[in-house]
Amino acid sequence: xxxxxNESVAFLKEQGITEPFIGIVLGTGLGKLVESxxxxxxxxxxxxxxxxLSALESHAGNLIYGMLGGKKVxxxxxxxxxxxxxxxxxxxxxxxxxxxxxIQNLLISNASGAINPSYKKGExxxxxxxxxxxxxxxxxxxxxxxxxxxxxxxxxxxxxYLNEKLKQIAxxxxxxxxxxxxxxVVGPQLETRAEYRYLKIIGADAVGMSTVPEVIVSNQMGxxxxxxxxxxxxxxxxxxxxxxxxxxxxxxxxxxxxxNTLFTKLIEQL
Length: 270
Prior knowledge:
By secondary structure, the chain is an alpha/beta fold. The protein has six helices and nine strands. It has helices at residues 2-14, 88-101, 160-172, 193-201, 212-220, 245-269; strands spanning 22-26, 38-44, 62-68, 71-77, 105-114, 124-132, 177-184, 206-208, 225-234. It has a five-stranded mixed beta barrel. It is globular, with a radius of gyration of 17 Å.
């Protein structure tokens, strides 16, 4: 894998991507932050050697490099998921590439369902901890020590320093920002009523199908990271309604400006 990462990095440097300070992963329906970036280079995933391709309409599939908040950033406009048939190694491959390009911090976004009954759809969740229910780890591979320790400590997978910064920004900007635990499942089917009850019992505040693999790899490679989730539905097992994908995408779009404000203000302060 190291050779493939180096090949991707060399290609991107040839395109003019040099010394990005912050990496950004934009989740489902959350790609408009790139409109605030003074873009210097845009590269399609399909052109990058060894990069996976996203088949989802809500994920544009571009790597965007430029200035945001006075810093050089590199944004993944679209990510990869287990439910698309990718391995955990493929899902996290771009994070390894971003690290070798030079990022010092990683900001992650996603969409999720609210398990905690006090959370409301359309609001934001700052992830403080997570539960990995995806049945594997991107570190369970031969030769993974090339990128860092195999046995990675996860006592604080999300940067307490960056999380505190985001909470301060949210308060100043009058943005509701819940804080809690995110459970990552495989999907793509949504949960049953019994599964929602189980998730609540084990301590999950929200549930989604991404983010945790990227966070594990970030911790292995020593990249401080944060993750904010847009709550796109309320998962009350006693009053469960059929999935409404257009509504979920609309809610993600409605909450996106608040997410973009938090990320932009954070970048300005780093």
